[in-house]
Amino acid sequence: MNLKKDLRIKHIFLSLLSSILMISIVSILFNIKTDLHQSVGELFLAINMETASANAVTTVVTFFRGLDTLGEVTVLFLATTGISLMLSSAKRVHDKVIEQESFILNIGSKLLLSVIVLFGVYIIVHGHLSPGGGFQGGVVIASAFLLLFLANPNMNLNHSILTFGESISGVSYVLVGLIGLFKLNILFGNFLPHSISQIGDLISGGIIPIIYIIVGIKVGSEITVIIEYFIKREAQNA
Amino acid sequence: MIGIMILFTFISITIVALASILAKDVTTSVIFFMGVGLGSVVLFTLFQAPDVALTEAVIGTGISTVVFLLGIRHTTKEEIKS
């Protein structure tokens, strides 16, 4: 009986606590003041004009916080290495289990592949003009390959091209940062010409679009490899 | 107006998250979890963060659901054999 009483009191207490939290969150949501004065965001927006990139978020990700982006890319690389190491020793899913693929699915997925890859490339290349960038566009390209795998399970990808693209983009990302360090004494310094008069053009912003294209190739190939391993390999102790 | 929309999205995300926790089947839970990602895409768009919304739409709703479902497929196969 005593235990039951305790439980009930605990439940009442917990629901009271959660309702107080809910009320405080809602009151915060309704009283948001868009006061950006004397904050880091204000400073970033003020300096953003110098880099001639129309999208301020892209400038923060690739220029002001370039080292953090390098860390993110390294984390993704380590995750892909771990998954490949874990699943490469597992045996492949038997091909005879998979039935003959459907004709309509096959043709439809190949038609959609070009459209989705084009959209991903658009997001990557326009990363310094509109919302989006290397990470988002790379994952969009990987999802196009996921569609191809789901429609046609017997398909094989050329792993040497994926590995080459992944490693060459990783090396060139570090090289771009080091060139900026040697020329301007800033890691990921913007050493290419970037005049403010070109803001809004496709070719503007110096190294910012180059870094996003490199990140797009790297993320796209890595996520494709992860999905390919998950679909094609069986669990190790199955 | 935007405050009411934010509140509505907030409440619907909470309901879908509760449904994801209370679901008896793992696959159903993953699909409800995708609904949580969908709600947060709307929330990020209302808070004027289109970059984060795009990332959440692609990764949180697309790729992570597929990876969860493939993980379920791998583990259930193992259970049937043993």
Give an account of the 3D structure.
The complex is a heterodimer of chains A (238) and B (82). Chain A has 238 residues and is mostly helical. Chain A has one domain (33-237). Chain A has helices at 2-30, 40-48, 56-64, 66-87, 103-125, 134-151, 159-184, 208-232. In chain A, helix 4 packs parallel to helix 8 (208-232) and helix 6 runs parallel beside helix 8 (208-232). The radius of gyration of chain A is 24 Å and the shape is extended. Chain A starts with a helix and ends in a 6-residue tail after the last helix. With 82 residues, chain B is mostly helical. The radius of gyration of chain B is 15 Å and the shape is flat. Chain B starts with a helix and ends with a helix. The mean pLDDT of chain B is 88. The A-B interface holds A 25-26, 29-30, 55, 57, 123, 131-133, 135-136, 139-140, 142-143, 146, 223, 226-227, 230-231, 234-235, 237-238 and B 3, 6-7, 10, 50-51, 53-55, 58-59, 62-63, 66-67, 70-71, 74-75, 77-78, 81.
